[in-house]
Write a structure and sequence with these properties.
Blueprint lengths: L2 H7 L3 H18 L7 E4 L5 H8 L6 E5 L2 H9 L5 E5 L12 E7 L8 H11 E10 L4 H7 L15 H6 L6 E9 L7 H13 L6 E8 L5
Parallel strand pairs: 1-2, 1-4, 2-3, 4-5
Antiparallel strand pairs: 5-7, 6-7
């Protein structure tokens, strides 16, 4: 998908709502404090990187991606003060503990060795890592994810909530927690209004999974 197409989707009514719901959930897990630094791994067009930067107060926010076209778009559509760099998520060019917070939004769904990416995120995070992933126990998977996926979801890896938590097994983390959003992915007015109730009635069935874990060393 071209950067312009990807970004334009977030300008649609459905995209605006989904983007806002996903951002709200991610931001609640990140909970950045003043002057904390943040790295967005697999930042794409920088949609979420820009949103994270709005929560920052004199914070350093960096987006990293291996796709140069996406990075050029991100740099050209973002405010000054956000840095974008070309980097392989499986071998990030940062020293240990370079950022307070490290986040990745659905990028791991398209990377073969997702555990290696998570190790790298934990290596450079001082306080917390947050992942956004796609939920196999969701209506969106039934309509867009089966048989290799359709459209923007083609080739994506979908996880169950239990599989997401198991990604942290044998890694130096504490307090892993998980929540989901977007139970009804159509974005119609009625589904938007029902979303809080649907999350209560169908916990763990939202299409978007957010999981956070604190770096073990930060607790010592």
């Amino acid at each position: 998908m071209q950067p312009e197409q990807y970004e334009a989707w977030y300008a649609t009514q459905r995209g605006q709502w989904i983007g806002e719901e996903e951002y709200r959930l991610l931001a609640s897990f990140l909970a950045p404090s003043q002057s904390e630094t943040l790295l967005d791994v697999g930042c794409g067009t920088g949609y979420f990187t820009r949103r994270f930067a709005t929560d920052a107060v004199d914070n350093k926010v960096v987006g990293a991606d291996i796709d140069l076209d996406m990075l050029r778009f991100a740099a050209g559509h973002s405010a000054h003060g956000i840095d974008f760099i070309a980097a392989d998520a499986q071998q990030l060019p940062f020293r240990d503990g370079s950022f307070d917070l490290v986040v990745s939004v659905t990028a791991l769904c398209f990377i073969q060795d997702e555990k290696q990416v998570l190790r790298e995120m934990l290596r450079i995070a001082r306080r917390r890592v947050v992942l956004g992933l796609l939920n196999r126990h969701s209506l969106l998977y039934l309509t867009k994810g089966r048989c290799g996926g359709r459209g923007a979801y083609r080739g994506a890896r979908w996880h169950t909530p239990a599989e997401v938590l198991s990604l942290f097994d044998d890694l130096p983390v504490r307090h892993a927690s998980l929540s989901t959003a977007i139970v009804m992915p159509g974005g119609k007015l009625w589904s938007r209004r029902l979303e809080p109730l649907l999350q209560f009635w169908l916990p763990g069935c939202g299409a978007f999974i957010a999981v956070a874990a604190d770096v073990w060393s930060a607790q010592q």
